[in-house]
Amino acid sequence: MVEPNKKSLMIPHETYMQRCFQLAENGLGQVAPNPLVGCVIVHDGKIISEGFHQKYGENHAERNAILHIKDENLLKNSTLYVNLEPCSHSGKTPPCADLIIEKQIPKVVISNLDSNPEVAGKGIERLRNAGIEVITGALEDEGRFLNRRFFTYIERSRPYIILKWAESLDGFIYNETQRWITNKAMRNLVHKWRSEESAIMVGTNTVLIDNPQLNVRAYFGKNPLRITIDKNHKLPKNLHFFDNSQPTKIYETTDLSEILANLHSQKIQSLIVEGGAKLLQSFIEKNLWDEAHILTGNKQLLSDLKAPKIQGKQIFSTEIEGDNVRIVQSSKRNVINNENEM
What we know:
By secondary structure, the chain is α/β, with parallel strands linked by helices. It is built from 10 helices and 13 strands. It has an 8-stranded mixed sheet with strand order 9-8-7-10-6-11-13-12, sandwiched between helices.
């Protein structure tokens, strides 16, 4: 593995890499199981072209940026910035490393090496063997966080797992007379979150009681694969889960490791778990989670169904003006350093 050459980093590299990150985020929800990648090409201190990976199976970021150049002679005196190592293998698209070499771009600056065994330093090696100067490690930590779904999927052989629930001021998750804990704006935000992930999962009782659609009707983008468990075949066929409106998978096992291994084999890069309390707690107890989105409303439920409890590093919390709805995002582990799971 090529070590980051951090001595070569300068502020301009960081500035252009930040722009790569911004571009890469445009592919969220569209490119999985591929990584989020953005690319800028700089000539004489000015960005002359940009690109990002827009959709799975389509051109990668480097190719999109290079194809936007009208005067290709400029490339021979330009620097290409990209947040992930250019690919060196042929998949649905040709190798980006070969295109960079073909266009005689003399310098490439990269944030992260690709953990995919098909790449894993081979792209950088190919560029250097062609005489191209390659600088790695530009905003490396930020790059790994941007692609936390991809790195988890590759390095841990399972989807990146996000737990999400809404709880009341008194720490309850649900009661039969008052189901809505948060406001409409928060429900719209939840649909946005759904559009960014590959799959969404709820427990059997949640399907029976709430009959959820688990789609993105309040936002835009792709509906995630919806998942539940029906070990005893007790779900009636008139539920939304059986309406054929979006991809759906029903497991007959409660073994989470088995389910996650199967999802990984189907190239499901990320999973958001929305409930109920029993399913959420089972993920927590087995230490199978990476982020938790906890929405706290301004109501008390006085119920007997307590919200799950987690231990994690709080990233941020915010209050929605007027409705006093608080979002707390927590992270269990450090994706940057790839800490081991328990």
